[in-house]
Amino acid sequence: MVLEEEVTDEALMLELTNGNEQAFSQLFTRWKAPLISYFYRSTNDYHRSEDMALIVASRVYAARNSYKVVSKFSTWLFRIAQNLLRDEYRKAKKKKEEVFHPELHYEIPVQTNAHSLSDMEEWLAHAIAELKPQERSLVLLVYQQDFTPSEAAEVLNIKPNHARVLLHKARSYLSEKFKNHEQG
Amino acid sequence: MNKDNDFRQIEALLSGRIKQPSPRFEEALRQIPAQGNSSKQVTSWTGFLKIAGIAAAVSLIVWTGVDLNLSSEVPSAETILQSDPDLLTLFSLSNDLDMADTLLSEDNLLALDYLTSMP
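Predict the joint structure of the above. Result:
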């Protein structure tokens, strides 16, 4: 069966439930980069991020027969990702920081005269790492993954208004920190 | 939601996506359906790859005629690796698999739970 580009994630997941494994490949052609990017920004460890994305993919495949369309596929997917990330944070191991090579891994539409891209990347990695885990996930879900605050709240299992408050707090913190960085 | 100028730059950075996952990732992703379907086999996909890697190593040794006798005439590992780029690749693959196996050990347990709970 030929699957078209316009097919929704939810329809692809149902195709997978019905035994069409091409749907699994197509789903993760769409979602592998967002997932790895999410884990990378959360952990600053590129190889670990790929491994975590693989774990999510294997959990999606394992749960294919119990999948029901009660919310967007992306919300369900990132709930799995978030549970995994929570386990990762719980381990709380001190990890060595990677040397940043954004030009190698990332396509970033950023324009800045004051600092090089590497400098900005390093700044962002440290700034994100200083956020509380829940705030960090909210910022990434909304500004990296284009979730609405309500959708992000669903992923994190918190109330939408609570998510908005946390998001505002994180935004203010990052803006202030960025201002200081630009001036310094 | 108001977007101040400072935050626009942060947003631009945050919206960056990785260009292309590594070949290691792509290969492992391809293995997931095959591994998920082998319900009788309680082996993780990394375990499956390891078995495949060992089988490939044995085939390669037989094919290249490497003597497995542990006598003084057996070439050293370093000599074999220097003379055979395929083996070098295989050794690198083995290291990657060891790392993946360690990293995914927790998931292996979950996969085991899942597979053993199937009717």
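Residues 21-116 of chain B form one domain.
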